[in-house]
């Protein structure tokens, strides 16, 4: 009947209770953050962290990970092994409870694990729920036990067995082998191998004398990590290839059931490199422990400066946190009972315990105050570095404010050479940074002006690895780029004002083009890192070859692809192909550039991501910094890999 109200039944029968691990399969992202590739890494780390908890408790010396050709991910340790006895209350094995019940495990009892990476007690059971198949083997008191599961449901009770089916060789401990469920992880069931290796390496630094072994049977890669220097070894690794100003400063203090370790070392770069951890978990979003550290080091250095020079050196204002962190590499590592941990979110990326801020702040401040008094040479070396940072900050601030007064960075006047797009929605807009005015003109003619903007770049841009903001803004090409992006730069960045959500570097396929690309990547990494972190930066892949036989035209993006295409030609076409090697974008006409490089349906774009921030920092410092020996060594080592055009 027209106009009648819709009715629906809402009674007791409408209430659904998700039993066991059903909630995990229903809403997996609530438990592991994402069902993309990083979710696979998260699952593997949950299992590894259980082994690490045994190591932190002093019962494990070996952690072994196998990446099987079949897709299974297997973790072994030589710890105590998960208990297999029946729990009277539940009348099933403790192992089954741990693997199938949320909020079950030994980490809620401080007597079982004083320090643990786990907080919510859902790690193993969540991984089980999100796996199409899981096998757990436990060896305790010379007996081997096994239980298998499908999508979190036990296939059989825990039983004693004679032989391992997952190649578990330790005399005691736990082995877990799981196959991520493709119904959950629809994009991929492969881990990000490079990120995984970095995560294992971090754990090896933080846990002294534990041997981590990795076997990747998909590519026959093997590696092992064993460090006995702890976070001092890590801080030396962070400053690899840089000119250091002093030996590492190491701080350690225990108070009741809490412990903090800090390592500090300054180098002569203009960038900070600070890592924070809680119970081997990388708190990449920081938290109270990092806040306490930053407050303490700024206060201690300012107090020392006043003692040495009075009210600031040469009457200048006191040092800010930005001054102090320039050239600073530091590790802040807190260990505390897992039962007291307060994280923001299941992925444990930010610590929330307020008492830790006070503990870390007081510990670091007291130690540095004494250390600077006892080691004046170190204190003065650091002060000299920070004083230069302060001068540069004030100069950059004055330069930036001069630009802002003209309204240049506020989008009042877009660069004249920018051919903007018609689309106003940043999510639908693309900006191509094109090498050279000639190629820029071709790109302007070949683009889809509705959503593609073109910004030609003239020559090589400034190397910004060691450039302060005043120099960046004084360089016209970079200033124009900042204005075009619209989000500002420095401490006044407003990410919401970014005008394009796809920013594409498009340079020639030669040495000069690769150099310009590297300079642009350095600029974004050092001055606009959110562009990379939020997935907005890309590199366009222009073709290297045009293969033409009569009216039949194909494009190849590598030597291998060219050979493959030529060999695939029919006999009549194979006898007369013309192969053109492109050395510059300007050699293509607008239609060719659109068809091969800019057309969303056919183009190849490489997204720029930072899988290993520690290694990325090293590479940029080594390639683009002032220290010549590391760069020379890199060039000599990799010289034979270079493919040059003459």
TrEMBL record:
Residues 429-543 form the Toprim domain. InterPro entries: DNA_gyrase_B_C (IPR002288), HATPase_C_sf (IPR036890), HATPase_dom (IPR003594), Ribosomal_Su5_D2-typ_SF (IPR020568), Ribsml_uS5_D2-typ_fold_subgr (IPR014721), Topo_IIA (IPR001241), Topo_IIA-like_dom_sf (IPR013760), Topo_IIA_B (IPR000565). It catalyses: ATP-dependent breakage, passage and rejoining of double-stranded DNA. It is an enzyme of class 5 (isomerase). Its EC number is 5.6.2.2. SUPFAM superfamilies: ATPase domain of HSP90 chaperone/DNA topoisomerase II/histidine kinase, Ribosomal protein S5 domain 2-like, Type II DNA topoisomerase. CDD domains: HATPase_GyrB-like (cd16928), TopoII_Trans_DNA_gyrase (cd00822). It comes from the Bacteria. Keywords: ATP-binding, DNA-binding, Isomerase, Magnesium, Metal-binding, Nucleotide-binding, Topoisomerase. One of its GO terms (molecular function) is ATP binding. Its cofactor is Mg(2+). GO terms for biological process: DNA topological change. SMART domains: HATPase_c, TOP2c. Belongs to the type II topoisomerase GyrB family. This is DNA topoisomerase (ATP-hydrolyzing). It comes from Candidatus Roizmanbacteria bacterium CG11_big_fil_rev_8_21_14_0_20_35_14.
């Amino acid at each position: 009947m027209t106009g009648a109200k819709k009715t629906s039944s809402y009674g007791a029968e409408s209430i659904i209770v998700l039993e066991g691990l059903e909630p995990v399969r229903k809403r997996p992202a609530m438990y592991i953050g994402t069902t993309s590739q990083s979710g696979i890494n998260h699952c593997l780390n949950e299992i590894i962290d259980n082994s690490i908890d045994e190591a932190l408790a002093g019962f494990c010396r070996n952690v072994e990970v196998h990446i099987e050709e079949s897709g299974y991910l297997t973790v072994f340790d030589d710890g105590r092994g998960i208990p297999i006895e029946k729990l009277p209350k539940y009348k099933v094995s403790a192992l089954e409870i741990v693997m199938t019940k949320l909020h079950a495990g030994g980490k809620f009892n401080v007597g079982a694990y004083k320090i643990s990476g786990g907080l919510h007690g859902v790690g193993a059971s969540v991984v089980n729920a999100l796996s199409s198949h899981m096998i757990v083997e436990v060896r305790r008191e010379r007996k081997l036990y096994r239980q298998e599961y499908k999508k979190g449901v036990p296939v059989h009770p825990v039983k004693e067995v004679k032989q391992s089916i997952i190649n578990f060789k330790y005399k005691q401990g736990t082995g877990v082998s799981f196959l991520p469920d493709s119904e959950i992880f629809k994009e991929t069931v492969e881990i990000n191998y490079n990120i995984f290796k970095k995560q294992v390496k971090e754990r090896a630094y933080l846990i002294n004398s534990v041997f981590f072994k990795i076997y990747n049977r998909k590519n026959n890669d093997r590696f092992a990590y064993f460090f006995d220097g702890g976070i001092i070894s890590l801080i030396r690794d962070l400053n690899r290839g840089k000119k250091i100003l002093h030996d590492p400063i190491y701080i350690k203090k225990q108070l009741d059931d809490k412990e903090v370790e800090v390592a500090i070392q300054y180098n002569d770069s203009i960038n900070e490199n600070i890592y924070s951890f809680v119970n081997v978990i990388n708190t990449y979003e920081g938290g109270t422990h990092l806040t306490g550290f930053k407050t303490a080091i700024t206060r201690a250095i300012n107090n020392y400066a006043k003692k040495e020079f009075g009210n600031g050196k040469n009457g200048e204002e006191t040092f800010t946190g930005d001054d102090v962190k320039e050239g600073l590499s530091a590790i802040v590592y807190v260990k505390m009972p897992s039962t007291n941990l307060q994280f923001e979110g299941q992925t444990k990326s930010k610590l929330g315990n307020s008492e830790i801020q006070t503990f870390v702040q007081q510990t670091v401040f007291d130690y540095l105050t004494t250390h600077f008094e006892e080691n004046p040479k170190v204190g003065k070396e650091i002060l000299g570095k920070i004083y230069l940072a302060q001068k540069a900050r004030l100069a950059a601030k004055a330069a930036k404010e001069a630009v802002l007064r003209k309204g240049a960075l506020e989008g009042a006047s877009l660069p004249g050479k920018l051919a903007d797009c018609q689309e106003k929605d940043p999510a639908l807009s693309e900006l191509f940074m094109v090498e050279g005015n000639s190629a820029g003109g071709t790109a302007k003619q070949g683009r889809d002006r509705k959503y593609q903007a073109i910004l030609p770049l003239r020559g090589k841009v400034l190397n910004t690895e060691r450039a302060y903001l005043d120099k960046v803004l004084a360089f016209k090409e970079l200033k124009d780029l900042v204005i075009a992006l619209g989000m500002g730069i420095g401490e006044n960045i407003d990410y919401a004002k970014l005008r394009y959500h796809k920013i594409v570097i498009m340079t020639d396929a030669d040495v000069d083009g690769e150099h310009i690309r590297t300079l642009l990547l350095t600029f974004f990494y050092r001055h606009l890192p959110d562009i990379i972190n939020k997935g907005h930066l890309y590199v366009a892949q222009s073709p290297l070859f045009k293969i033409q036989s009569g009216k039949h035209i194909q494009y190849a993006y590598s030597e291998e692809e060219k050979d493959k295409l030529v060999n695939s030609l029919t006999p009549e076409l194979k006898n007369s192909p013309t192969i053109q090697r492109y050395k510059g974008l300007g050699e293509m006409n607008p239609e060719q550039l659109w068809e091969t490089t800019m057309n969303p349906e056919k183009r190849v774009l490489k997204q720029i991501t930072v899988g290993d921030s520690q290694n990325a920092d090293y590479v940029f410092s080594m390639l683009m910094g002032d220290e010549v020996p590391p760069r020379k060594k890199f060039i000599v080592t990799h010289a034979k890999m270079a493919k040059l055009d003459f």
